[in-house]
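[Q] Does anyone have a clean structure-token version of this?
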Amino acid sequence: MLLIESLYTGTAPATEQLILDFDARTKTRLRTQLASGEEVGLFLPRGGILRGGDKLQAQDGRIVEVVSAPEALVEARCASAFELARTAYHLGNRHVAVQVCEGALRIQQDHVLEHMLTGLGAELTHLDAPFEPEAGAYASGHHHAERGATEAKIHVMGGAHG
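[A] Here you go.
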């Protein structure tokens, strides 16, 4: 089994891909497979979240690119900026991971949260897309210079209905 224990920050191109959904990208210990089917074990420093485009270095020197897998998501759009902000508040109050898009919010599909969003007046669209939620405001973790030195890891709470 190929072992991966570190992030890679160099400029060498990746020769392998590791396709993971958001839940898997929050784990620092994981047994999985590369896109080629080769078995791999992740043993990464605790506290980080992998993002699509991150690179990892395998024990044998290979560079592996992390690819965000498409997931079942719900996109919420609202009639006004006020309603969108109100919707974001209610999702945040439930400690839900949220991806902020231009004029919309995306969450992982959850029928209870979808019911709440509909009740708040949001128009919902179901889609399959990579999920890259916002980082938590008070959490710290690894970051990328191209995204800004203040980016923090996502604060993942147990359960979507907290």
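[Q] Thanks! Anything notable?
[A] Confidence is low (pLDDT under 50) at residues 140-162.
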